Amino acid sequence: MAPHEDQSTAGVRGPIEALTASGLRALTGDAAALPGPGGLGVRLAARLRELIRAGGALRPGTVLPPTRAVAAEFGLSRGVVVAAYEQLAAEGFLAGRQGSGTRVADLGAGARPAPKAPPPEEAARPGVPDLGGFPRGRWLAAYRQALTAMADGDLGYGDPRGHARLRTELAAHLRAFRGADAFPDALLVVGGAADGLTLLADTLAACGRPRIAVEDPSSPRTRALLRRRGLEVTGVPVDGEGLAVDALREPGRLGAVLLTPAHQYPAGVPLSAGRRQALVRLAREHGVLLIEDDYNGAFRYDREPPGCLQGLAPDVTALLGSVSKTLAPALRLGWLLAPPAWAPRLVHDRALTHPTGHTLDHLAFAHLLHTGDYTAHLRRTRRRYQSRLHLTTELAAAAPGFIPLGTPGGLHLPVALPPWSREAEVLAAVRAEGYDVQGLGACALTPPPPDRPGGGLVIGFAALTPAAIAHLVGVARAAGGPPPSPGAPPPPG
Question: Around Cβ 140, how many Cβ atoms within 10 Å?
């Protein structure tokens, strides 16, 4: 059953009456006086969310007054009220059915107080999409179409770059949606971004340029992969404009720079235009390969995402991408768009290690791209993930001192902890509840001491339910401790 599909009031004790607009105003107070950050619609949604969690007058099944009546009673535009209702419906607090109005949804026992059952596996793990949103029916139909239409020759070893049909569709998609300078002959279909990065790392080592610069902070797993392939990893600091190009030392000794320009991991900031241009000039001057991990380029919630760096400098940039964040990691489908000077060597090495690809998967994904089903899926998931970013308002309301960082995008939210807390203690508490949250300290090339005050969290929010978000915030707030009393000495560290 799809989320919010069951609009019944089963389990509700006693008759449920429709709430009048004046009754709603009596519960919430005047709109202009509603506390909290954001506009009127955001504050109205926050107040209704609190009332629903508390039960009482807004218990499950309560019929809310029509938006026109609420707008007239509060002296607001109807659009403000509609936006508040839609926000809460997207989060699962409200439910509506044709002819029966908008009702308070049944959040189930355990939504408040905190549920005792552990969250789903990988809950809050950064980079994991909402796996329940995988389009199983579309993928199955694409498989059937691929099996029906594929030629007998498609069952052979094929092109080591990947099936030509997928490379054609993928090149068109990357040009249209990521601003890439993409053509089928320059693309390699790989088994995910990590597979493509492994291929690039092996080529760098074989060419005698094993030194690679990475963003600091960055993904610990990515750094471990690079070191495992024999590369020397050096860090470059990140600030509000992304990778600090001026901090790159001895660029002539570098083989490559690995970066996440669309939405830096974990800080969540895009690489500024000035930094992009400076980095391209440096790469061309010193013969450095720029490796762009476009892991989250499809998701930006306040505006259109910036185009990829490869589109600005295809001669020095290798673009890595995959469907792990947009469809599912289990598909192991990704791509590597290489500069012309690098492509022959990469294709040669790919043919040695992977003489054939997963052709059926290639053709199924090509079908999704060709029919527009993939872009439609991206639009749906973008709306769903955007609704879950109310995690930021939850933090502001329930955990003062927990400061969201970066721009609204991707599948994770970096959060700075208050200076009176300790990252290790907060991490231990949320992980004990089953949340696979990452610490900002672990992303630094030189992690800080575990007893250092402050720090931060990297929270994957794509698959979290409203109840799980509230629970996570409550656990983190309790573990962070109360702010010190005025005049108290600062914590050591």
Answer: 11
Closest C-alpha among 120, 7, 50 to residue 390: 50
Tell me the pLDDT band of 275, cut-offs 50, 70 and 90. Answer: very high
| 415-449 b/e (C-beta count within 10 Å ≥ 16 → b) | bbbbebbbbbebbebbeebbbbbbbbbbbbbebbe
Contacts of 202 (CB under 8 A, 6+ apart): 229, 349
Q: What is the pLDDT of residues 291-325, one digit of tens each?
A: 999 998 889 998 888 899 999 999 999 999 999 99
Per-residue pLDDT tens for 332-364?
Answer: 999 999 999 999 999 999 988 887 778 999 999
Reported as a single tens digit per residue, the pLDDT across 106-162 is 776 444 444 444 455 568 899 999 998 999 999 999 999 999 999 998 888 889 999
DSSP string over 312-374: T-TTTEEEEEESTTTT-GGG--EEEE--TTTHHHHHHHHHHH-SS--HHHHHHHHHHHHHTHH
Instruction: Please state whether 410 falls in left (phi above 0), alpha (psi between -120 and 50) or beta.
Output: left
Beta bridge partners of 337: 187, 319
142 φ/ψ sector (left φ>0, alpha ψ -120 to 50, else beta): alpha
| Sheet-wide strand order for 242-243 | 187-190, 334-337, 317-322, 289-293, 256-259, 211-216, 232-239, 242-243
DSSP 389: T
DSSP 152: G
To the nearest 10 degrees (0 to 180), the angle between helices 359-371 and 373-388 is 80
Measured CA to CA, the distance from residue 386 to residue 436 in angstroms comes to 21
- Measure the CA–CA gap between 13 and 11, rounded to whole angstroms: 6
Residue 477 and residue 395: Cα distance in Å, rounded?
Answer: 9
Angle at 369 between CA 366 and CA 371, to 5 degrees: 105
